[in-house]
Design brief:
The chain is mainly beta. It folds into three domains: 118 residues, no CATH class; 117 residues, Lipocalin; 108 residues, Lipocalin, CATH 2.40.128. The termini are far apart.
Length: 363
């Protein structure tokens, strides 16, 4: 019976569908990433090693909802790299984000890595749909069963942002996150998870109604900065959003509330120290807990390149302060993307790992 079952799984391994989306897979402790940007190529990045390019192909095991990618180093030397990519909710263990794919990777030298994958922006949807949906922060203005006045009366409103297969938002009381995929004019929404605060009414009722409505497979329509989501069985809008003005990175001073310590953990600043930063005219500057620092940055949309960063040369004797400064400056230099949700700034690495959180300093 076990042989028969194994044979059934093998017989179900079919060539990968052409629409299988590109993925960025990654894990922690130690940090690693595997970019599967085209069906026949993969790029493996490991700590203290140069990125390695592999050529191969993938097949699907439909009963397991799994895609298997197998390849060799460019040039054909060495053993196989094999990645098992299963469609299931995956927690990266570092944040409240739920990713859509679980990854298990067997390296040619026998090492094994496990982690999650996110859908890259190039494969999250057909180009026209993803370009319309992704990028803006959308504020909820209509929700079936709730009045527009009640929505407008919420202190911070209900907001959501779509980016490369990940959802980030605010439900009126709690911060929310989840996953999604887009197929032409439809978006399929994974379950939303979030913080567990209790708020006064009507915020809690609106958040519950929003989470119920913002689920399943919905038809997408974006016209002149207005996003409408509706079910296929009922063309009347279930939810309507309006695009918020783009956030501004420049012109604001930020106080850091957490930074990546290069050990795959986002930690708070040491007691008695204050970390700050600001971006303006291609220059990033601030205070690193002991010394002031300054460096260059460039950005294109939410893409960011920082560094090198240099600091003054004061030596502080308080325990851990100088090590904190080194870790903080390294975190800034590793940032490749930025987002702002209300008054909170987040910087992330290329593999999606958070490297910094900060709150706006009131003028």
């Amino acid at each position: 019976m076990r042989r028969a079952a194994f044979g059934l799984v093998l017989a179900s391994a079919l060539p990968a569908a052409a629409e299988d989306p590109p993925l960025m897979c990654f894990g922690n402790e130690p940090s690693w990433s595997l970019a599967l940007e085209t069906p026949d190529r993969a790029r493996l990045t490991l700590p203290d090693e140069a990125p390695a390019e592999y050529r191969g192909e993938s097949a699907r095991i439909e009963p397991l909802r799994e895609r298997v990618w197998r390849g060799k180093l460019e040039g054909g030397a060495g053993g196989d790299l094999v990645a098992f990519l299963r469609e299931a909710d995956c927690s990266d263990g570092m944040s409240d984000v739920t990713h859509p794919v679980v990854a298990r990777v067997s390296l040619p030298d026998g090492r094994f890595r496990a982690g999650c994958c996110r859908i890259t922006s190039s494969g999250a949807a057909a180009p026209r749909a993803s370009a319309a949906l992704e990028g803006p922060v959308w504020r909820l203005v209509q929700l079936r069963g709730q009045t527009e006045a009640a929505l407008a009366g919420l202190q911070n409103g209900v907001t959501i942002r779509f980016e490369a297969g990940r959802l980030q938002g605010f439900g009126g009381c709690n911060h929310l996150s989840g996953s999604y995929t887009i197929d032409r004019d439809r978006v399929s929404l994974g379950a939303l998870v979030g913080t567990l605060m209790a708020c006064a009414q009507p915020a809690m009722a609106i958040e519950t109604a929003f989470k119920d409505a913002f689920s399943g497979s919905l038809l997408v329509r974006v016209v002149e900065g207005r996003l409408t989501l509706a079910s296929e069985s009922n063309p009347d809008p279930r939810l309507v959003f309006e695009a918020m003005p783009p956030p501004r990175l420049e012109g604001t001073s930020w106080e850091v509330t957490g930074f990546n310590n290069a050990r795959q953990a986002v930690v708070s600043p040491l007691a008695g120290t204050t970390l700050t930063l600001s971006f303006e005219d291609g220059s990033v500057a601030g205070h690193a807990g002991c010394n002031n620092f300054r460096g260059r940055y460039t950005r294109e949309g939410n893409r960011l390149t920082v560094g090198p960063v240099a600091a003054t040369r004061k030596a502080c004797v308080e325990e851990g302060v100088m090590e904190q400064e080194r870790q903080f400056l390294a975190a800034i230099e590793s940032a490749t993307t930025w987002t702002i949700d209300r008054d909170v700034l987040e910087l992330h690495r290329a593999d999606g790992e958070r490297v910094l959180t900060a709150r706006k300093i009131a003028n």
